[in-house]
Structure formats: C-alpha cells, structure tokens
Amino acid sequence: MKKLIIVLVIIAAAGLGFYSWKAWKESAIYKNPAFTSGNGRLEATEVSIAAKSSGKIENIFAWEGDFVTKGQHLAQMQTNVLSAQLAQAKANILVKEAELAAAKADLMHKQSNHDNSKKRYERAKSLFASKAVSQQNYENDEAVYKGAVAELASAKAKVQQAEAGIAAAKADADRVQADIDDCKLTAPLDGRIQYRIAEPGEVLSAGGRVLNLVDLSDVYMTFYVPEMVAGKIQPGADVRLLLDALPVPIPAKISYVASEAQFTPKTVETRVERQKLMFRVKARIDPELLKKYITYVKTGLPGVAWVRLDPKVPWPEFLQFEPALAKAKKAVKKNEKKVLKAEKKKAEAEKKAEKKQEKAGNGKGEKGAK
Questions:
Q1: Which of 68, 150, 240, 367 could be cross-linked to 306 through a Cys-Cys bond (beta carbons 3.0 to 4.6 Å apart)?
Q2: Domains identified in the chain, total number
Q3: Residue 258 φ/ψ, nearest 5 degrees
Q4: Per the domain annotation, does 31 fall within a domain?
Q5: What is d(CA 26, CA 279) in angstroms, rounded to the nearest whole number?
Q6: Are 57 and 201 in contact (CB under 8 A)?
C-alpha cells in the first residue's frame, strides 16, 4: 500500500512539473519582443437576404445553423398577383402581334396602290409632255400618286408603331417575370444561416429582411493593441489565432490596422491594466484554408490573436499549425476508438442480458409445465 502511494505521488509530481514547465514555456512568449497578442472573437461578414418588393412570405426552406451553398433556394415569396400580371402582359403581347399583322397587311395594300398610281402618273406625265392627254388628267394622276405616297408612309409608320408596341409589351412581361424570379430568394454565397428574421405568413415591405447569412469565406478576428505595439504591426504580418474552444492555432494575416486610436470597447480585456485608447487591428484567415474546413467554421468564439512582429523568429511549438493539427487529429481518432470500444462493450452487455432473460423465461416455462 505504501509503495502504491509513493508511485502515485511521483506520478503526480511529474505531471505537475511537466505542466508547470509547459505553462512557463508558453508564458515566456509574453516577454518576447518578437510577439504581441490581443484578445478578440471570431467574426465574419454578414449578408442580409431580403425581399426586393413588398409581399407575403410563402415558405422558408432554411433554419438557423444550416450550411447553405451559393444559389440554393432559401425562401419563397407569394407570386399570385405577379403571375396574374404576367398572364396579362403575355396576352397584351398577342394583341400587339395581331395589330402588327394588320398593319403589315395594310402596308402591302398601300404598297400596291402606290406602285399602281406611280405607273399611271409616269405614263400620264409622258403623254402630257407629248400633248396626248389634257392637263386635268395629268394633274389628277399626279394627285392620286402623291396621296398613295403619303398613305404608304403612314402604313410604314403604323408597322413600326406596332413593332414598338410588341417590344414594349415583351419588356413589360420580362419585368414582371424578373419580379417573379426575385420572389425566389437564393443564397448569394456559401455560408451559414445565422438568424431567421421573419417567418412564413408574414407580410414584408420592400427590402424586408428574411434571413441573415454569415459569409464563411471571410472570417477574421478583431482585437486591440496599445500605441507602442500598433506602430510595429504591418499589414500582411503572420498571425496565429488560438481559440478557447480549439487547441489548434489557426494561421491568419493582418488585413487592417487602424490609423487612429479609439476608446476600447467594454467587452475587450487585456493582460495588463485596461487602457482607454487602443488601436483596432483585424486578422483575416486565409480563404483557401477556410474552404477546406468551411463546415466547421463558427463565429463568435473567443480567443487570442498572436502577432509575429519579427518574421525571422520562429513560432513557438504551441503556436505551430501543422504539429498542433496532427495532435488534434490523433486525439480525435483516439477518442473515436474509445467511443467504438465503449459501444461494443455496451452491445455485448445487452446481448448477455437478453440471453439471461431468455434462460430465465425458459426456466419458468419448464417449471409451469411440470
């Protein structure tokens, strides 16, 4: 018993020493001038999916937390009034096409009259020159010809007017169809639904929001640093985001450094005594990295952003992405094996219990038969 206690004490002391050494090693980075840090939360660009025109929501096909892809049908507005307008617009197109057919037929008639009167006029003109017809007959044929020219021009104008009427009717139908298409609300990009702002049956005004979508391809952390540090941070500097809920440091880049100091928000805490004026800094995660793990990305998670001020200094071990990722994968696999092993034992125990119940039931049956 004494030996067991001694062994346990040695193991506890070794474990305490290891974690103390690890904590000292990790805290040493705070004193390293090549690194600085700031607390923040993961954020992402938000996109509101709204109705273009006023109307009633017919259905919503997405729930909060759903991952959606670009072009996915998310919600449907009612289109019964617009459908009636589209039918009316299409009927108007048919009316305009009939008017065009009539105008073309009239144009053919006027063209025939024009050609006939032109021949008579030219013949009368030739005969009048040779004194074969009277001046009255010549002037009559000339007047008929000029009237035919005017009527032909009028018929051509009516054809052009009818064609323009068809174009206007088709444009009106296209406009109504565009409004119907806009009633089908789709995802403009890949992301996750954050809020269902409205519900089916609600009537929205033009621009009324239905869903709030988070763009998971544009994820960043905003944090604050004092003046003495802000001057050393350059856009493009390497960053490691160490989240409270994730043991893997996420690579990022500085995408923005404020040019003016501002009062620090109350939600921001610093390692040292809280300062009033701080510079806002934004670290953006590589979009290519986000694509690989886009379904696992969650916003709002708190963490620490570590900035490397000197690119020549290597990252500490606990902030190296690849080794940490490998460890995390091993831990996941190990946990999966434990879960499978536990499920297997549970299944075996259930089978044994069923067999015992069957034996107990058979024994009672035999006793009853005796």
A1: 240
A2: 2
A3: -60, 145
A4: no
A5: 25
A6: yes
Assess if residue 215 is contained within a domain.
no
Report whether 65 contacts 193 (CB < 8 A): yes
Task: Report d(CA 304, CA 260) in Å as an integer.
Answer: 22
Q: Over 70: is that where the pLDDT of 205 sits?
A: yes
CB 305 within 8 A of CB 252: yes
For residue 57, is pLDDT > 80?
yes
Nearest to 58 by CA among 69, 74, 47: 74
- Residue 102 tokens, joined: 């009539």
One-letter amino acid identity for 15? G
* Cβ neighbours for 269, distance < 8 A, ≥ 6 positions apart: 39
Which position has the token pair 């009537």?
A: 203
Angle at 292 (CA atoms; ends 290, 297), nearest 5 degrees: 45
Smallest CA-to-CA distance from 169 within 103, 104, 86, 81 is with 86
CA distance 234 to 351: 64
Residue whose structure tokens are 């993961």: 42
pLDDT for 254 equals 92
Q: What distances in angstroms separate CA 270 from CA 40, 274, 300, 304, one per listed residue?
A: 10, 6, 18, 10
Tokens of 76: 């449907």
Most confident of 35-39, 97-101, 128-132: 97-101
Looking at the fold, whether 161 and 191 belong to one and the same domain comes out as no
User: Phi first, then psi: what are they for 215, rounded to 5°?
Assistant: -80, 105
- By residue range, what is the domain housing residue 56? 48-78+184-210
Q: Are 74 and 185 in contact (CB under 8 A)?
A: yes
CA 105, CA 220: separation in Å to the nearest integer?
68
